[in-house]
């Protein structure tokens, strides 16, 4: 199933279930920012509703999303949240959400018809809202800036810092994620640019010491699915990079 077909079907199923209460469906993440890798990237959506969906509606949505996910060629599939329009206008941190679906929750949805992820708060939403405001695409409904006001900078900074705070402990397990995210966070703090992981890594190649370029190049290669296979970075080097980057981030704050 091609990506445009996935987007069209996702919009259709939310139109079917939410009807006139669907404010809009918004694309963010790598696909919106031009660095989507069909083999590894997920499709990131944010769905805005005018009123809280019923539990029955959310159960039906979960079943339809499972079927859509099964037809996708990449295993990451969809990642999306449903939020209320009112929560965007009176933003609190962490922002609340009504429903969430992702590959991480897929097995729970398959195993338990009553399982629903929703009714909580998620710091990541502050980052998603910021990306949508600056780089997002309205797939259906109201234009982005009629729905998403600017996010307080402190909320966005909190969200992206939480995303990398465990980098020293976790970078050897997820080297691509943390290498590029650390670059992306420092890029924003120094230059105010809301970037993708790919753009963050490319900035790192321009702005960071040359000793870090091989590991950034390797992460970019893995992230984009490039040809060839550059040498992997040693665990000790990755840990040292993460520690140094967190110190640079602290200084930038």
Give your account of this protein's structure:
The model has no long low-confidence stretch (mean pLDDT 94). With 253 residues, the protein is of the alpha+beta class. The protein is globular, with a radius of gyration of 19 Å. Helix 2 (55-70) links the parallel strand 2 (43-49) and strand 3. Helix 5 (124-135) crosses helix 7 and helix 10 packs antiparallel against helix 11. 54% of the residues lie in helices and 13% in strands. It has helices at residues 3-18, 55-70, 85-89, 103-111, 124-135, 144-147, 153-164, 167-170, 175-191, 197-207, 213-224, 235-252, and strands at residues 22-28, 43-49, 78-84, 96-97, 99-101, 120-121, 137-141. It has a five-stranded mixed sheet, with helices on both faces. Strands 4-6 form a two-stranded antiparallel ribbon. The N and C termini lie far apart (43 Å).
Task: Describe, in short, the structure shown.
By secondary structure, the protein is of the alpha+beta class. Helices cover 54% and strands 13% of the residues.
Which residue ranges are poorly predicted, with pLDDT under 50 across at least 5 consecutive positions?
none
As for the number of domains, it is: 2
Mean pLDDT: 94
Total number of β-strand segments?
7
CATH topology of the largest domain: Beta Polymerase, domain 2
CATH class of the largest domain: Alpha Beta
- Span from first to last CA? 43 Å
Structural class: alpha+beta
In the CATH hierarchy, the architecture of the largest domain is 2-Layer Sandwich
Order of helices and strands: HEEHEHEEHEHEHHHHHHH
The largest pleated sheet is described as:
5 strands, mixed
Q: What would the principal axes of the Cα set say about the shape?
A: globular
Amount of beta strand: 5-15%
In which order are the strands of the major sheet placed? 5-3-2-1-7
Task: Count every helix, treating DSSP H or I runs of 4 or more residues as helices.
Answer: 12
Helix content: 40-55%
Nearest-angstrom radius of gyration? 19 Å
């Amino acid at each position: 199933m091609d990506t445009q077909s996935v987007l069209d079907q996702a919009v259709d199923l939310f139109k079917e279930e939410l009807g006139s209460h669907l404010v809009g469906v918004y694309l963010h993440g790598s696909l919106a920012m031009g660095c989507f890798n069909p083999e590894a990237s997920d499709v990131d959506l944010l769905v805005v509703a005018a009123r809280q969906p019923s539990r029955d509606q959310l159960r039906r949505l979960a079943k339809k999303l499972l079927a859509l996910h099964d037809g996708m060629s990449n295993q990451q599939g969809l990642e999306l949240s449903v939020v209320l329009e009112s929560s965007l206008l009176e933003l609190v941190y962490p922002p609340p959400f009504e429903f969430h679906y992702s590959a991480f929750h897929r097995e729970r949805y398959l195993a338990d018809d009553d399982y629903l992820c929703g009714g909580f708060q998620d710091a990541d939403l502050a980052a998603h809202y910021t990306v949508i405001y600056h780089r997002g695409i309205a797939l259906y409904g109201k234009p982005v800036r009629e729905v998403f006001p600017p996010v307080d900078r402190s909320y966005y900074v909190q969200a992206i810092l939480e995303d990398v705070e465990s980098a020293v402990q976790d970078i050897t397990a997820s080297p691509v994620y943390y290498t590029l995210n650390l670059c992306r966070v420092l890029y924003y703090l120094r230059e105010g640019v809301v970037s993708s992981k790919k753009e963050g890594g490319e900035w790192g190649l321009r702005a960071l010491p040359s000793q870090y370029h091989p590991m950034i190049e390797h992460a970019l290669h893995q992230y984009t699915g490039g040809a060839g296979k550059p040498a992997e970075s040693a665990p000790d080097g990755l840990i040292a990079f993460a520690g140094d980057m967190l110190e640079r981030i602290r200084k930038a704050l």
